[in-house]
Amino acid sequence: MTLDIDRNIEQQEEMELEDQLSCLTADLIEYKKNKDFIKNLFNIESGKWTDINILCQGMSHLQKQLELIKNCCNEQLKVTWLDYPVSTMGEGYCLIIFYLECLHWDNVALYNKKDFI
After folding, report:
1. Which DSSP symbol is given to 86?
2. CB-count exposure of residue 86 (10 Å: 0-12, 13-18, 19+)
3. Residues 21 and 98 sit within 8 Å (Cβ to Cβ)
4. Are 116 and 42 in contact (CB under 8 A)?
């Protein structure tokens, strides 16, 4: 399940924070409209944790979701990526790891960097 951009803010506020995080992180990886996030992420050194706001600058359609998360937790989601050369899916895969410390919440996505290039 992912969040539609057209979903109104009241519905998002009714979701548990963990569900909002799951939807947001899935959207960031899945939708082409968020390709700037992936581009910005892969411009950061592998293994370096980065505030998601930095990677989502200029992506106004995500700002309300990011504000909801920060308001609930008074901190922001962090993200990093790691090469994953032992993937059974083949070459070119990496792991994208999201983490919100205040909840000890995480989400890991397997991503084929070849799809991006």
Report:
1. T
2. exposed
3. yes
4. yes
**116 band by pLDDT with thresholds 50, 70 and 90:** low
Give this prediction's pTM.
Answer: 0.83
Partners of 83 in beta bridges: 94
- Those residues with Cβ within 8 angstroms of residue 78's Cβ, 6 or more apart along the chain or in another chain: 49, 50, 51, 52, 98, 99, 100, 101
Domain range for residue 64? 9-116
Domain presence at residue 67: yes
Distance CA 59, CA 51 (A): 14
In this structure, is residue 31 part of a structural domain? yes
